[in-house]
Amino acid sequence: MSETLTITTPDGDFSAYVARPEADKAPAILVIQEIFGVNKVMRDICDGLAAQGYVAVCPDLFWRIEPGIDITDQSEAEWKRAFELFNAFDVDTGVNDIAATIAAIRAMPGVEGKVGAVGYCLGGLLAFLTATRTDADAAVSYYGVGIEKHVGEAEKLNHPLLMHIAEKDQFVPPEAQQVILQALKDHPQIEIHTYPGRDHAFAREGGAHYDTGDAAKANALSLAFFKKALG
């Protein structure tokens, strides 16, 4: 069952896609978009999490640029638009919008207990920053781009964080991965899994670099992580 949630901020309102489980009350997971907006890939992730027993919420984080972005990774024109949106996006403001979404989720009817977050690509960076800057109870980052610039924020981490890193990620070069691993591998709240031979977005179903086996492995690890962290 899906619905729309409206989040109110001092700068205006924006919307989020919501998928609900069969249970009347459940913990929640905030799903943080890639650079393609709240598209079918993100909605399907929400629906899958709802089937696992979570209230899943995916906010429209590009609303300040253009509300309602819903594009794919299947054409050159869409990729061009996606990178335009990525370059226009303000990460710090985006994290503030995520914090506002978490507050709205906690107040939703049917949400009981903890609120986690999972993000992909741009959302992978935002999931890391959600873990360090908000009151989210747990977070999962898939192939986050730009995390190496923010590793110092891990000292603020009070809740568990799971990270999936593609070793052949074209957007996270080896030197960036080395910075991330060296800074975070011994952090008591952080669990990191790396995927040899995998490129960026290996878990994006239908994408050019999708890998069935490693996507299934990463997703199983994420579900086990959330079950432990959120109940």
From TrEMBL:
Which UniProt key words apply to this protein?
Hydrolase
Domain Dienelactone hydrolase, residue spans: 14-229
Q: Does the keyword Nucleus apply?
A: no
* GO MF term list: hydrolase activity
Which Gene3D superfamilies would you find in this protein's record?
Answer: alpha/beta hydrolase
Judging by the UniProt lineage, the source's domain of life is Bacteria
Protein name per Swiss-Prot or TrEMBL: Dienelactone hydrolase-like enzyme
Q: Which organism is it from?
A: Caulobacter vibrioides OR37
